[in-house]
Amino acid sequence: MRGILNLTLCALALILLASTGAEAAKSSSTACKRSIITKFVSYIKSLKSSSKGVINTSSAGPIYGITTSSGKEYLGIPYAQPPVDDLRFADPVAFPKFTAVFNASAYGASCPQYSGRETSEDCLTLNVFTPSSTSSNSKLPVMVWIHGGSFLVGGSSDAAFDGSNLASEGVIVVTLNYRLGLLGYFDGLGTNGNMGTLDAQMALKWVQNNIAAFGGNADKVTVFGQSSGGHMIRALMSSPASEGLFDRAIIQSDPQNYGLQSRNVSADIIGAIASSYIDCSDIACMRNASIDDILNAQAAIQQQAPYLVAASTGVALAEPISPAIDGSVIIGDFSALAAAGNLPVNVDMIMGTVHDEANPTIEAQLPYPGVSSDYFAQVAVAVMGQDRAIQVLYSGLYTPDDSSDGVREALAKLGTEFIWTCPTQANAVTLSSGRNVYLYEFEKGITYTPDNGGLSLCTSSEVCHEDDLYLTFGTYTSVTSSQKKLSAEVMDRWVAFAKTGSPNAVGYKTWSPVKSANKLNAYLLGDAKVNQTLRPTDCSFLQSVGFDYSIFG
C-alpha cells in the first residue's frame, strides 16, 4: 500500500509541477516516470504470482517471494540495519535474523538522492532472482550486480536491472543498494569515509551466508557492475576484507582514469566542505542534520571541490564523492596495487567499455553544435590540467575538424579515450600478469532511455555510456534482430564466465585473455571480431601523458 501511495504522490507532483511550468518538473519527471514503471511492473508480477515458497536461510531467517513465468524473485531483503540515528555515517550493522517469515515481494526504497525516486535512509536491501526450479542442492553460480550513478544516484530497483532473464540461464542473480553521496562517503569528524563500500561488502557477506538456500554456490560468486558500479569493484578489490567474498569480476564502462581518492582529498577538502556547509563541528551534529541539508551539501561539493582540488594538484576532480584510500578498508589505489602485484583480491576478470562513452556528458555540457574551437582548449585544460592539455593540443590526435560539430566530436573522442578506453586497456595489461583478463569494446548497443534517448550524439550509429545495460540483462522492450542477437551473446558470455571462468560460450567466436599491449585479444561485441590492438596510437600517447589515478592515488 505504501508503494502505491508513493506512486500516486509522484504522479500528482508531476502534474502540479507541469501545470506551473516549474523547472523542477523537467529534472524530476524522468526519474518519477521510471519509478512508476518499475513499481507497476513489480505490482503486475505480484498479481501474476502463482505460488509462494518459503526459503529458510541459515542466518537471515525464513523468506518468501514471488513466482513469475521466468523464475522466482525475492525483493527488498534487508541485509543491514537501517543506517539512521547513531548508525548514520557508521559502519553497517547486520540485520538480525527474521523471527517471522519475511515478505520479499516488493523492492525496497533507493538510498537518498536527488532523482525523483522513492528514497529512504532505510535502503540497505538486496534482491535475489533464481531460475524456476532450484533447491539448496543446486549450487548454481551467483552473479552480484552493483549499480552505477557516480556514487550519487541509482538503485537496484531499476527496470533495466531485472535479473530474471539472466537467472533463467542457470545462475542466481543478486542486485543491491548501498549508501550514496555523503551518507556513503562523508570522510571527517571520525568517520572512515567508506561506508558505501562497507555496505557492498556486507551484502556480499550476506550472499556468502545465505545464498545456498536459494540454490546458489557461495564458492562461485561473480561481481559485476557498470560505471561507478565498476569503480566500486575496483575499491572492493583494493580492500583486504573483500578476500573470499567473490572469485570473479566483470567491470563495465568504469571511468578507470579516476583513481581511488587519497585521504587528503576526501577528508581535507570534501569532508571540510560538507561539515562547513551544514555548520557542524562534530559527528552528533551531522547525524541530526536533515536529508535536505546533506543533499544540498553534496551539491555544494560537486560545484566547489573540483576547483579546490585543482588549486593544489592542477587537475580538477570529476567525481569528488567516491571511495577513498583510508589505509584499512581500502589500502591503496587499485592501479598502483595492481602494478606492484599487491591487490588484496586476485580474481579473473572481464573489463571493457562502449565505443562512445563520453558522448552523453559532452552533449549535456554543450547541447548544440557550432561550438567555438577555442572551447576545446578550455575544456582540455579544465579536465587534464595545463601541462597535459598542452601535450594533447600539440599532438594532432584530437584536432577538431571544420564541421559544425567538430569540436563536440573531438571532445567526445578525447573524453572517451582519456577517461574510459585507454586507462581500462592499461589496467587490463597490468592485471594480465597473474590472472586471466578479457578485454572488450561494444561496437553496437541499445540506446538507454530515458537517459540517452533523443541525444544528437547518441544516435543508432553511436554506442553511448549506459547503452550496454539492456544488452547485459536482456531487459529491452523494442529491438532489432541484430540487437536481440547481441544481447543473447552478452548474456551467454557473462553467464559462461560466471560458471567456468571463461566467456567462451558455445557457438561464438573464441575470445582469449589479454597477453600484452600488442596482443590484447580485444573482443568487439556487435562485430564479433578480435583485435590485437585497440586505438593503439591514441592510447599509447595518453598513457605517456599520464592518467589521473597516478595523480590522485
TrEMBL record:
The keyword Hydrolase applies. GO terms for molecular function: hydrolase activity. Residues 54-541 form the Carboxylesterase type B domain. Keywords: Hydrolase, Signal. InterPro entries: AB_hydrolase_fold (IPR029058), CarbesteraseB (IPR002018), Carboxylesterase_B_AS (IPR019826), Carboxylesterase_B_CS (IPR019819). Residues 1-24 form the signal peptide. It is an enzyme of class 3 (hydrolase). Its EC number is 3.1.1.-. It holds the Pfam family COesterase. Belongs to the type-B carboxylesterase/lipase family. This is Carboxylic ester hydrolase. It comes from Saitoella complicata (strain BCRC 22490 / CBS 7301 / JCM 7358 / NBRC 10748 / NRRL Y-17804).
